[in-house]
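User: Please predict the structure of the protein below. I'd like the answer in structure-token form so I can feed it into my own downstream comparison script.

Assistant: Understood. Taking the following sequence of 136 residues as input:
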Amino acid sequence: MTTAFSKEEKAAMRAAAAEAKAAKLGADLQAACEAAIADMSGTDQELAQTLHDLVKEHTSLSAKTWYGMPAYANADGKVIVFFQSSAKFKVRYATIGFQPDASLDEGNLWPTSFAVTKLSKADQSHLVELLKKATN
């Protein structure tokens, strides 16, 4: 059985290849992240910018892009947290996700990504707690 990748998935794969090449050439990864956020619109842009600001204020993670979306990596270059816009894959909510190198393990079951349509002050506080835990 052959599965075809969607137009959006193919674009994400091309973005990942371009990011890897740009990183090897010493590109400004922070600027790429900020450009990815600027290219978004509406709620996606607002949510991505909020996450970006929280990461900058509360962690030492470095901004970059990952599959064309804003992401934040540790000193080893491993993505810890990322943002995926709802428009990217034409879904009803954006996603904030944490990769395995984020130290969020808690018992036998813990969330690694969150659907997000809005970030209240309480949500932002919870996100800051997760960011701090993920980077310890």
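That's the full token string. The chain has one domain: 7-134.
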